[in-house]
User: What shape does this take?
Amino acid sequence: MFILILGLLKSPEWGLFNNHSPYQLPWLFNTFSPALWLLLVGCLTFAAFIQYEIYFERRHGSSLIPTSWFSNKQFLNGTLILITMYVIFGGINFTLVAFLQVAINLSAVETGTIILIFAVSLIVFSIITPSLFKAYDNKFIAMGAFAICALGAVITWLSTSATEVGLGIFFAMFVFGAGLGMLSSQSVVIITKSVPSHEAPRTSGVQATLRNVGLAIGIAVIAGMGQSAMENIIRGNIEGNSEYSPKIQHAIQNSKTIPYITDEQLSSYLAQYAIAVPEKSKLLALNTEARHQNFHFSVLLIGLFSIIGMLACTRLEKKTTPPDYNKSIR
Assistant: This one.
């Protein structure tokens, strides 16, 4: 799992397919990114671990992860819901903080205030959900929570521009916190109730692992795809465009990645090349818009994962009755 998570976390920096890392691998491996090789090795190692667990359980009658869980639809749906919840959590935290501090240039205090609303809302709703919605089943609550997260993505989209954020961002953080807080109170219950009571304590290790995997996927996929969208916008506008000097076009063509930087950092970089003021203004405007599209694309992905979570909830049983594997064996 460490190898798999490391590959996910490094994919935005090293690239997922093409090698954008500073490392020169042997010629047979250098065609692709080290992150892709880490993901491949991690998946193969995990598959080998599962096969060993199956063999060990058949021989000794028990294993670290009971193989019956892999055929338990309620358990599998619960794990998908848990992963999706943490994908959203990791994605919104990573991309929002970067956008507020780099693109909008908010201070740490201003950024922290916005995130604080999200954190307080998450804690409050994770506490009050079991009593506030006790008349409803886990399936209904989880589906509603993902719908609330999708609403949060829409509000975030509408309340942000290339140069500022509106007051709606505070409400968006409250909505996101409410949705994820409701999910955090239900996902654990869904997974725990899907297995026999004597196996329930063993699900805690699976949940902890899925939390790390979900956070890594949220950062790698959501932030990574947003970064890729930003790079495509900048390259598409500069390469082959006669409005930009040969120096800038050459720099873009020879760069493996385009960093996510502030206007001040870009201005300092352009000063080294003695770029004329009109071209500098165009590059600053392009960088500002590309960062904005980066964030909006990430928010779109968060909304998409919210819909995926809703679809996963439709496969849940309304009333969870733990299966009796011993009875089925008899």
Observations:
- DSSP finds eleven helices and no strands in the chain.
- Residues 41 and 206 are 20 Å apart (CA to CA).
- The radius of gyration is 23 Å.
- The chain has a mean pLDDT of 87.
